[in-house]
Each structure stands twice: as structure tokens, then as C-alpha cells.
Specification:
globular; seven-stranded mixed beta sheet; mainly beta
Length: 116
Amino acid sequence: VQLQASGGGLVQPGGSLRLSCAASGSIPRIVRINVTGWYRQAPGKQRELVAAITSGGSTNYADSVKGRFTISRDNIKNTVYLQMNSLQPEDTAVYYCNLESVSTYWGQGTLVTVSS
């Protein structure tokens, strides 16, 4: 299973971005039962969970992004999205997608820079 993250970039404060995390390869049926999340790591800081969604659609958010970020998934496309609105400079980080099932998978990071 490979995870491909995309959608990062440079955006001004108050702007929006949508990140995508697409799973590809041979995905065992058991792995389709999973929790997929977005983590981020800012320079000099530890990696932190931003948002997560179960295969059943239950979601969880870090307090710092509640009301601004929305995680969703398309189980047909094996893709999880993170819609980020009202972005602030403190949201600047490398964002990683993660899939937790019988095994753990990580995608490569995608850089989000919020700056004027």
C-alpha cells in the first residue's frame, strides 16, 4: 500500500487549501478497515495529529483546527481529503497522511506555507 499526499503550497493568511491522500497498490480487504489521519510537523516541533477519520466516517480534530479544517474520505477512490480554511501562519508545516490498520502506512509529506 502506498500513500500519495498532494495539495500543499503557499497561501496567504485566511486562504484555503485542500490536501489529498490517495492510497494505491494492492490494498487488502482488512486494510480497508482503517483510520486515516493527517499529521503535521512544523520546524522545531513534534509531529502532531491534525485530523483523523475512520473507514466508517467518524472524525476527530485537534482543538487548534476545529471549525477551520474538515477531513473527509472517498472509499471508492481510496482517497482522504483535508479541506483547510482560514489558514494562519501557525498552520505552516509539512503535512503527512497516515493510515492505521493491521499495519501502519505513511505518505510523503506535503509542505503547506501560510505567509503574506
